[in-house]
Design brief:
alpha/beta, Aspartate Aminotransferase, domain 1, 7-stranded mixed β-sheet, 14 helices, Aspartate Aminotransferase, domain 2, 4-stranded antiparallel β-sheet, 15 strands
Length: 423
């Protein structure tokens, strides 16, 4: 287990309902920020704030160096090359950068260099039934704009992707396969190797939504073998408003941009423009440099803990969350129950309580000082597959303890009695 890190996170020192200590179990939605991240942002604004890559004065040089160093730090965190990291507003924006770039390529933008990104009638775009809306809707829109067909890999009753007949879903017509690294509802970690292997067999591009994995697991883009990957700082102890798209350099240099403006161009005339190579071609306008500096501070903090240690710590918490919830009468744990090794799971548990709406479950937990997520977690299709509209989700991070997980289970055990629906 990791040491108790709560003192590093100022928000976790506060009390909530009726002076109760806060138990924060909503990190799959957004994580708390350690002092080092808050201080990094503040220090940039206080002492180094300037436009990057524009001025010739000392402060501009310092800002530009901080900007460039942050890119190198985030790249190193996922074993990427520095010029393969593109700053985006969040992971959703990163996915849209690829999907909209493919739409532009399909419209003829980018010339012969962008030909591999073109999709049209007869082509297929493949996602999975477990995707967050952010990794579903952009591909729906790409299919609608190009005439391609959207199809998906189904899941079984436990929420596992059904890969036995993968070849019938990911066919030779597939142009891109987009899938999550880890489910934000079940906590299941995907079989990336099997999906990448099939995509390679048919010549399809792959995009990995790593929002729920990069905060909790070691992630190595070279070992994973995907073509694109997205992550969001606010889920990995960093600031809001900043994320990153990683892509293979040769792909990024050929993908047409979809947001246009300053900082992206080689030359501009009154009638045409040529683009810089990646990552600059995707970073139009002024960048959120302070947030980028904070993002880098967050990945340095996680790296110092060791991501193998982070994963092991959260697996121990996952056992208590999942086994404790599954053992309660009238409580349904979404996802596998006791038949998947915790090495294949994140530290989260989404539950449905018989006879009680998820929002009411969350209110009882909130009254006990326990912060969780309620609703469909931006994943309506998977909830629909489970036959429910919503759930209550507890999700852990490095600052949580086994006692936090026990507090969740104990409070959850009171819900049905509180509402008078216990047998």
């Amino acid at each position: 287990m990791l040491p108790d890190l709560r003192a590093d996170f100022p928000l976790l020192t506060r009390t909530v309902r009726n002076g109760k200590p806060l138990v924060y179990l909503d990190s799959a939605a957004t994580s708390q920020k350690p002092h080092v991240v808050l201080n990094a942002e503040a220090e940039f604004y206080q002492f180094h704030n300037a436009a990057v890559a524009r001025g010739a004065h000392l402060i501009a040089e310092e800002a530009t160096e901080a900007f460039a160093s942050a890119r190198a730090d985030v790249a190193a965190f996922v074993n990427a090359e520095t010029d393969e990291i593109v700053w985006t507003e969040n992971a959703t924006a990163g996915i849209n950068t690829v999907a909209n770039g493919m739409a532009n390529a399909s419209a003829g933008i980018g010339g012969t260099a962008s030909a591999r990104f073109r999709v049209g009638p007869g082509d297929e775009i493949v996602v999975t039934e477990t995707e967050h809306h952010a990794n579903l809707i952009p591909w729906q829109q790409l299919a609608a704009r190009t005439g391609a067909t959207l199809t998906w890999i189904p899941v079984d009753d436990d929420g596992r992707m059904i890969l036995d007949d993968l070849a019938s879903v990911v066919t030779e017509r597939c142009k891109v396969l987009a899938f999550t690294h880890a489910s934000n509802v079940t906590g299941i970690i995907s079989d990336v190797a099997a999906l990448v292997a099939r995509a390679r067999d048919v010549g399809a591009l792959t995009l990995l939504d790593a929002c729920q994995s990069t905060p909790h697991l070691p992630v190595d883009v070279k070992a994973l073998g995907v073509d694109f990957l997205v992550m969001s700082a606010h889920k990995m102890l960093g600031p809001t408003g900043i994320g990153a798209l990683w892509g293979r350099k040769e792909l990024l240099d050929a993908l047409p941009p979809s947001v246009f403006g300053g900082s992206t161009i080689k030359t501009v005339t009154m009638t045409e423009t040529s683009w810089l190579d990646a990552p600059s071609r995707f970073e139009a306008g002024s960048q959120p440099v302070a947030q980028i500096v904070g993002f880098a501070a967050a990945v340095r903090y996680l790296s110092a803990l060791g991501m193998d240690n982070v994963a092991a710590h959260e697996r121990a918490i996952a056992r208590i969350l999942r086994e404790g919830a599954a053992a309660l009468p009238g409580v349904r744990l979404l996802g596998p129950v006791g038949n998947d090794p915790l090495e294949n799971m994140l530290g989260l548990a989404a539950v449905v309580v018989d006879g009680v709406h998820a929002h009411d479950v969350g209110q009882v937990l909130d009254d006990a000082g326990i912060a969780v997520r309620v609703g469909h977690h931006c994943n309506q299709p998977l909830h629909r597959r489970f036959g429910v509209a919503s759930s209550t989700r507890a999700s852990a991070h490095v600052y949580n303890t086994e006692d936090d997980a026990r507090a969740f289970v104990a409070a959850l055990a009171t819900v049905r009695t509180f509402f008078g629906v216990a047998a």
